[in-house]
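Appendix C reproduces, verbatim, an entry submitted by the partner laboratory led by Prof. M.T., so that reviewers can inspect both the input and the predicted structure.
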Amino acid sequence: MPVNVAYVALGSNLGDRLGQMQSALELLSAGNELTVLEVSPIYENRAIGMGDADPFLNAVAKIETTLAPEVLLDVCLTVEEKLKRVRTGSWIPRTIDIDLLIYEDFELKSEKLELPHPQIQKRDFVAKPLMDIAPDLVLKGKTIDKWVAALPVIELALYPEVIVLPKS
């Protein structure tokens, strides 16, 4: 099976936010199918659409994997479940959120998954950390740094701690 590069977004605004993000990467890389190559700085930001909920911590990880995109998504959902993510269909605080953003140059639009993720260039908490680790990444004909520059506002605060790369 070929090895592919993908990017996943991590977010948390309940409980030990940093610990849950760290645990998510460790669980993702527990098997032989996925290696975390790099993790962006962590940013803290408001909880969009959640009223006065606690702020989120967000980061993006660059990974390499032999898993197909849909299987990788299933692994992400399983990790969310292990970390007690509650899905109600509405915007609520969460222990962990893992989104598959990009999988090589693969494009897909299904009921379950859309690649590249359709909201990357609209969300500062995704676009900025993605730019930190992949500034030359091209999305819809523009590099990610141009998408970030075009955002109307960036309301992120650099978080002082970092996520440690899981041991391979």
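Strands lie at 4-12, 34-39, 43-45, 56-65, 97-103, 108-109, 114-115, 138-139, 142-143, 156-158. Additional entries are available on request from the coordinating office.
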